[in-house]
């Protein structure tokens, strides 16, 4: 790795940290950067998942007051979502290490664009399926855990735009402000990130997909800085602006993934 590679990864890491905190999809910045340094696609994917996890942590720190407010509003049930996210992330990591990526890669763009559509038309969908507080408590809880679990499976497998998927699905079920939903997204992303670090570090080499630790060492501090900055900026945005940013970037992510899969 030469100086040009280091500078490329530093810039990509800061940008990805900001984007992951505000909208999600920062891996679409770091993953191509890792490939550009000469890593194979699967190794780049595994390395990327480990490296960007630090940015999730700093994002969660930046939005922690909003997460605490959400816990006071929703109760202890919010904490149980962490276990669901962990189980889903383990399943996603296993999917990446044990199965061919081709079929899933072709599904990913539709998952991302579908999540963006849910977020963009969230209020209309709520009117169609019923307002969250109108749903029976048991059904609402089960739906919320299902949404988080499926998002975590995706996050463990690939990770790009997992934040968009989490915000879209959680916001459809949970009657909370977008700022608080984003804070929950950041906290759950930390859980998913920690699981990917543990699984890929322990089993990546055995599965033929080792983590490139030199790249992780460069990207990690950069994503930490970007994640915290993005979290502070995101908290100050008008909810309508934040939603527009997430929808716009999410659409771009979905189209890029589609072009990569079918182009």
UniProtKB/TrEMBL annotation:
Subcellular location, principal: membrane
Keyword terms, alphabetized: Cell membrane, Membrane, Transmembrane, Transmembrane helix, Transport
Stated family: Belongs to the 4-toluene sulfonate uptake permease (TSUP) (TC 2.A.102) family.
Subcellular location: Cell membrane
Any coiled-coil regions, as ranges: none
PANTHER family, A to Z: MEMBRANE TRANSPORTER PROTEIN YFCA-RELATED (PTHR30269:SF0), TRANSMEMBRANE PROTEIN YFCA (PTHR30269)
Protein name: Probable membrane transporter protein
TM spans (from-to): 31-57, 78-98, 154-174, 186-205, 211-229, 241-262
Domain of life: Bacteria
Organism this protein belongs to: Luedemannella flava
């Amino acid at each position: 790795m030469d100086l040009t590679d280091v500078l490329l990864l530093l810039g990509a890491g800061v940008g990805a940290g900001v984007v992951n905190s505000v909208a999600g999809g920062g891996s679409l910045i770091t993953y191509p950067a890792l490939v550009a340094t000469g890593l194979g696609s699967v190794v780049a994917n595994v390395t990327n998942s480990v490296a960007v996890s630090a940015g999730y942590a700093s994002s969660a720190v930046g939005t922690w007051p909003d997460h605490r407010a959400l816990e006071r509003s929703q109760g202890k049930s919010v904490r149980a979502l962490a276990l669901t996210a962990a189980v889903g992330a383990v399943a996603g990591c296993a999917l990446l290490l044990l199965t061919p990526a081709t079929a899933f890669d072709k599904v990913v763009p539709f998952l991302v664009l579908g999540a963006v559509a849910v977020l963009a038309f969230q209020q209309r969908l709520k009117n169609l399926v019923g307002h969250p507080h109108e749903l029976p408590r048991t059904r609402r809880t089960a739906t919320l855990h299902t949404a988080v679990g499926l998002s975590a499976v995706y996050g463990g497998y690939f990770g790009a735009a997992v934040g968009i998927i989490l915000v879209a699905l959680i916001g459809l079920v949970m009657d909370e402000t977008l700022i608080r939903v984003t804070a929950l997204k950041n906290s759950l992303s930390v859980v998913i990130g920690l699981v990917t670090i543990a699984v890929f570090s322990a089993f990546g080499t055995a599965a033929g997909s080792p983590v490139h630790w030199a790249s992780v060492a460069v990207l990690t501090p950069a994503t930490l800085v970007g994640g915290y900055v993005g979290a502070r900026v995101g908290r100050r945005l008008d909810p309508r602006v934040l939603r527009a940013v997430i929808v716009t970037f999410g659409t771009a992510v979905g189209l890029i993934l589609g072009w990569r899969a079918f182009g």
